[in-house]
Amino acid sequence: MGEAEIKTAQVIIHSHIICYGNAATDDLSQQIQQEIETMWNEPEAAVLINGHRYLVKFCITSQYNTDITELEILQNTNPRNNYFRIEEYAQGNISFVDGLGCNTGYFKLENLYLGSTTAAHEYGHTLGLDHPQNMDIRGRGVPGIMYPRGTLVDPQFQYDPTKPAGVTGGTMHPMYRRVKFADIDNINLNKARFVGGSAIIGEFTNVYHRNHAESENEGF
Fold it and tell me: Is the pTM of this model over 0.90?
């Protein structure tokens, strides 16, 4: 989720990443922020809004909050705020967000290694982007950021380029994903409702996530 602001010849999408949980750290929060901002700015894409051309820029900030409360998240009214719990264990063994165009989620620490692209991928979901329907993109080069694990790609983008497509090791390694012009277009900034030069991208989910490991131990 974020807030888009039209400023001169740019439309700037502001998002603030707030990390909490036992595996969250200040360094990790900054790493997530840098990955999202760097990858989403890489295309240097432009869009047309009401007949005017604007360069799309992503301005991402981050915060590690050790004292966050459930009430603080539930009562959030700032469209720039995105809340992600980070833990070593996640049910389903995967990071996730709470739907398309949301502002909350749960990240598995193992998925957040440097260069993983997981944070940038999940951020795309918070802006309303879904996984592409066609997961066989062999012959189409570098995979876009919204392709999920299991996607069939050219050998050089697999976990193991020597493996046949589809077997273990023969699917897309997430580290090869990149944000493309099409990903920026799919945000549909031209359809956003700008009031006073600003528009909200996404919706408030405001879900406080409990530690999955503790919840399972308690029988929930």
Answer: yes
